[in-house]
Amino acid sequence: MNQSARDATDNPARPTAGTVLCALDELTDPGSRGFMFRVGDQLFLGFVVRHGGAVIGFVDRCPHAGMPLAMAPDRYLTREGDQILCASHGALFRPTDGLCIGGPCAGRTLTAWPVAIEAGVVRVAA
Ligand code: FES
């Protein structure tokens, strides 16, 4: 897999706008869920976080070493549910905007993956 292409907008595996991700009810608040899309040998990994009533999406790629964040499926949040945790080296990110507030990539941000809620369904946004 080409790491640099994983989150590129020309990645053929990146789902198009309108793709259904999950029902809003499937996400606890706070909560998170990961998604993987594959086309041939290309992968796109993304995740969504429900936090304070909002749902925010990010590309599942840590700005530190480019690793996916979760050690276990759908486990993107700290135990308290108030921050996003990269399991590889412990970076912490704000769920509202993906800014790294502690760890080896402090000051950098996760790449946004726009999502929208429509009629109780979380979809990929344009
Ligand atoms: S890869 Fe995320 S903290 Fe190192």
Offer a few descriptive terms:
mainly beta; globular; 126 residues; 35% strand; Rieske Iron-sulfur Protein; three-stranded antiparallel β-sheet; binds FE2/S2 (inorganic) cluster
Q: Layout of helices and strands, plus pairs?
A:
Blueprint: E1 20-23, E2 31-39, E3 42-51, E4 54-59, E5 84-85, E6 92-93, E7 100-102, E8 115-118, E9 121-124
Antiparallel strand pairs: 1-9, 2-3, 3-4, 5-6, 6-7, 8-9
The chain binds FE2/S2 (inorganic) cluster.
Annotation field: number of helices: 0
The overall pLDDT average reads: 94
Spans of at least 5 consecutive residues whose pLDDT stays below 50 are 1-5
What fold name stands as the CATH topology? Rieske Iron-sulfur Protein
Beginning-to-end CA distance, first to last residue: 25 Å
Describe this structure in words.
By secondary structure, the chain is an all-beta fold. The protein has no helices and 9 strands. The strands form 3 sheets. It has a 3-stranded antiparallel sheet, with no helix packed on it. A 3-stranded antiparallel sheet has the order 2-3-4, with no helix packed on it. A hairpin with a 6-residue loop joins strand 5 and strand 6 (92-93). The structure holds FE2/S2 (inorganic) cluster. The site of FE2/S2 (inorganic) cluster has 11 residues, from loops.
